[in-house]
Specification:
Layout (H helix, E strand, L loop, with lengths): L3 E6 L5 E6 L5 H10 L3 E7 L12 H16 L4 H11 L3 H15 L4 H5 L3 H18 L2 H25 L1 H32 L5 H35 L2 H13 L4 H21 L4 H12 L2 H15 L4 H6 L6 H13 L2 H57 L1
Antiparallel strand pairs: 1-2, 1-3
Amino acid sequence: MPTYQYIAKDHLGTEFKGVYDDISDVGSLRAELTRIGYVLIEAHQAKAPAHARGRIGQQDVVAFAYKLSGMYSAGLSIIECLETLEGQAEKEALRQVVSDVRGRVEVGTSLSKAFEPHREVFSEFFVGMLEAGEAAGKLGEALEMSAVYLEKRAQLRNKIKSAFVYPVSVGVVCIGILSCLLLFVVPVFIKLYKNLHVALPWPTLILVNLSTLLRSWGIFMLGGAGAGAWALTRILKDPKVRSGWDRFKLRIPVLGKLNRLILVSRFIRPFAMLISVGLSVIDALRIAGRIAANDKMSRIADELEKAARAGNPVGRALKAHDIFPPVIVQMAASGEQVGKLPEMLAKGVDILDRDIEKSIDGLIIKLEPALTLVMGLVIGVVLMGVYLPMFDYMTHIE
């Protein structure tokens, strides 16, 4: 059904703006507003979701979640919190989203339902926590935990990105130097080689052929690489291909273990937080499986959900899947025994996150000298290919 933006007034004559979806026409909207005591003044169909007209970064969402949690815990009503955050929003896209959420809340929609259309911006976890917090009467706690989780997720993501800044930079520099040599330096020596009249060794022949290929077809190769990258992103959207890629990431050499740890952390932490605010284990497993955004983990979450429905303890269910480290299984089993499953799982994930940070640091330490060596070897081979014919020519002169 279409979404309508409207202007209405309450019984005091105060005008306000809002957004209403899942309604067929303006007449139905007017009837709905009249039912809750408002008078419709103006309405028109919205063209697109607010967040589609701009990009809202992860840091923007984290800051918003902390502010909303702090103001609500201080005693402000949800509408007052949203009005304040709407006025403080620096990005127009975020302001439009908050305005949309506020309008929905003002007409009686629950906070979780108001955030539902913006699930892609605020994440599946955020909406699930709001729903659980409202149902259990722990909305303030749910908001605070959501902010903490979103911040931890952003920190981990930034940590991973930072880890790959150096290797990517070295790779770009290496490709740039090699391209400059092939485009500008090697062609000069090709003319010199023709005058020397000596047989070219295989490293030089490779350089000559690469230089000729790059100068003749470089633009087409660049366009082909761009088209290939675009095609790859489209292919990865196919569910079967995506499923295979998700499994491959967990088995890839060197990075596979790190990817498994990150995936488990991304699944267990929201699961623990969700059950801590009153959500059932079954519902928490279902939402956490979606949050993980990995086909293998989604399948595991389905199996865990079936085990929970059958009455099996969480610790025993986790132990049946080797992707979960022993510390997580043990913490789950201990938590169930003492009746503190969310707290024990949270401690287990904290240990896991420290292991992830150590793995990332160790990977950086190994990558730096390896990449420096590779870069030196590439440049060395290029220089050897350039100068070998000249050495051969000097030998013939002697």
